[in-house]
Design brief:
Number of helices: 8
Low-confidence stretches: none
Distance between the termini: 102 Å
Number of domains: 1
Order of helices and strands: HHHHHHHH
CATH class: Mainly Alpha
Helix content: 55-70%
Strand content: under 5%
Number of strands: 0
Oligomer: single chain
Radius of gyration: 30 Å
Structural class: mainly alpha
CATH topology: Fumarate Reductase Cytochrome B subunit
Length: 258
């Protein structure tokens, strides 16, 4: 029975989440881009918003990059580069811990701002608050896994997650078996992470697809503005000429001019 549950959660559920993630994101990108927003509250608690947003975005980008490279890079690449499993484990704990703490503080500031300020809470959709709380819970689980990982500094526990992630992407039918005996806190972290991917297209997280990275290579023009307004002489002001002759206006002598 436990094998069936493990296969369902870590063998079938990932494909369901990835399918909804890809198709939902594509559909919303194509049809509902103008819904990628939330109620504006930038004028309220601007300092807390600035700190929370910066810490969250810097932390989440570092976490995503670390997970992407760490889980999806084939093991033979690390072996060819001479990177041992223990070194990779220590690097993941150090860099991931710093990024996780920064992101955790950022999410906590953003969630506190939306929950405990009545004016901001009134302009917040339930989905905005729910996704912040889910991210906060996921970061809590992720930081908690560090204490478990400290007991497996040989890195072989990390190899199980690498084999599982790469097995899912390469459609291996027995990929779920790699994580069958891992610590429950890792399983909770994986399940909630997949659930966030499932909910991704229905939340404001889809704004990540609107990152204007294509502007970096776009050919165009440059607008140059002077510091002071340019003073034009009367001669530089264009005049409008008409082909019709100008007819003078005369006022009769017996009628006073207004």
């Amino acid at each position: 029975m436990s094998n069936i549950i493990n296969d369902a959660l870590f063998g079938w559920y990932p494909y369901f989440c990835l399918t909804v993630f890809l198709l939902g994101s594509l559909t919303r990108f194509d049809r509902e881009q103008y819904t990628w927003k939330t109620g504006s509250s930038q004028l309220l608690r601007r300092r807390q918003l600035r700190w929370g947003s910066n810490l969250f975005h810097v932390g989440i980008l570092a976490i995503f990059g670390g997970h992407f490279v760490g889980l999806l890079t084939p093991i033979w690449v690390f072996d060819a580069l001479g990177v041992s499993h223990s070194f990779k484990q220590g690097l993941a704990i150090t860099v991931g811990g710093i990024a996780g703490i920064a992101c955790f503080i950022g999410v906590a500031l953003l969630a506190h701002r939306r929950l405990f300020d009545a004016r901001i809470r009134n302009t917040s959709a339930p989905g905005d608050i729910a996704i912040l709380l889910l991210l906060w819970l996921q970061l809590t689980l992720g930081l908690s896994t560090i204490f478990v990982s400290l007991g497996h500094m040989d890195g072989h526990e990390m190899v199980k997650f690498m084999n599982w992630a790469q097995g899912i992407l390469t459609l291996q039918p027995a990929a779920a078996a790699y994580v069958a005996d891992v610590n429950p806190i890792f399983k909770a972290h994986l399940l909630l992470g997949m659930t966030i991917f499932l909910l991704f297209p229905f939340t404001r997280l889809v704004h990540v697809w609107s990152a204007p990275i294509w502007y970096l290579g776009r050919p165009g023009y440059q607008v140059v503005r002077t510091r002071f307004a340019e003073r034009r002489s009367p001669a530089s002001v264009p005049t409008v000429r008409s082909s019709e002759p100008v007819r003078p206006i005369t006022v009769p002598a017996h009628q006073p001019a207004e």
